[in-house]
Amino acid sequence: MKNIFNYRNICFVLGFALTLGLFTSCSEDDEPFITATEDDYPRILQPWFGQWEDGEPTVYKSLSRDVTYVDSVTVTPALYTTVEWFLDGEKINEGTHISKQFLAGDYILKIVATTTKGKVTSRTGKLIINALDGDPKLSDKKTKRWLNPGKEVSIPCENLTEVKAVCIGTTAVSDAKVENGNLKFTVPSMADGDYQLVVTDASGTEFGCNKFTVSKDPCPYSDEDTVWEGSFDVTWGTPFNLLQDEMIKHVSAGTIVRAYVAPTGDRGQGSMTTSWWNNILTGLGDPDRGDIEITKAMVLEYQLTDQSIELLNAQNGFFIVGDGYTITKVTVGQ
Question: What letter does residue 83 receive in the DSSP assignment?
């Protein structure tokens, strides 16, 4: 019995010693053993960015404009590496941690790690900052986001009735205004490139409206939106008036309005006018209105001018008049 007791005591003591050794083998004051040196190539261990697709970086993060972007980076060799953060090519932060808020827009975020020996690595991804419901919003159409320096533009907008200022990148616009649901201004002289456009409303609050392309070249894009579709027989007694008050919201100088038509009999005739039956381009009425003969399925196409917009406002809206044909679709575009 005595030997058994001594054996149990010895096992208990040994077990306790081993346990104590296990938990005390590293004290809080011990420094981790670091093997990386300043000669090593830098690596960004965290965060992880997705693989590029079709030559473009993928979305890294997406958040609302009222949310602070908080992030951190883990790099090696940590003691010999500095970290810089770039947004659309502009340095916005230095260090392994960031906490910032941004205006709404799509940005290219790049994290660059550089060692004391000048060795560099980076990670790139898209940072999407989403506007809130009720924020000013400008048209997403490529034709409306292509800006030629010196040219007056008219961009459909929502939730914006007055504008205090407009900036394209860091370049201020001098003559911005809102008319008939469109933001209008003359594009200032500036270098070609893609820029974030920022509007300041009447209260002085700034809102990001995403990127616009400034270029001296003509816009390479075209678009066409259907504003009405159905079947409407035009006669002298029944002009097409279903877009009388609505059309002004969809057009500006330069907009192309197209009506897809076909004769209901052998032939018809018609033209786009104001509700006063005056030609939308010339302002002239019958017999100088310039009705177009319609003998087959075709498209009536009118590119509006500043005078057209003035006529629509002064003469109570938009009509398509004439006789002997059917309209199946009306579109607007460039």
Answer: E
Number of other residues whose CB lies within 10 A of the CB of residue 296: 8
The answer to whether 137 touches 209, Cβ cutoff 8 Å, is yes
Q: What type of residue is 320?
A: I
The helix/strand/coil state of 238 is: strand
Q: What are phi and psi of 150, to 5 degrees?
A: 85, -10
Closest residue by Cα to residue 97 from 115, 79, 118, 82:
82
What does the DSSP assignment read for 199-224?
EEETTS-EEEEEEEEE-SSPP----E
Edge-first strand listing for the sheet containing 152-158: 137-138, 152-158, 182-186, 177-179
3-state helix, strand, coil in the chain (%, to 5): 10, 45, 40
**Residue holding tokens 């830098």?**
42
Amino acid in the structure at residue 61: K
In this prediction, the residues of the chain whose per-residue pLDDT falls under 50 are: 1-5, 7-8, 10-31
The pLDDT of residue 223 is 80
pTM of the model: 0.67
Structure tokens at 188: 């200032």
Residue 9 to residues 13, 17, 325: CA-CA distances in angstroms?
Answer: 6, 12, 109
Task: Note the Cα 294 to chain centre separation in Å.
Answer: 41
| CA separation, residue 169 to residues 37, 192, 253, 318 (Å) | 41, 11, 25, 37
Q: Which DSSP string corresponds to 274-287?
A: ETTS-BTTT---TT
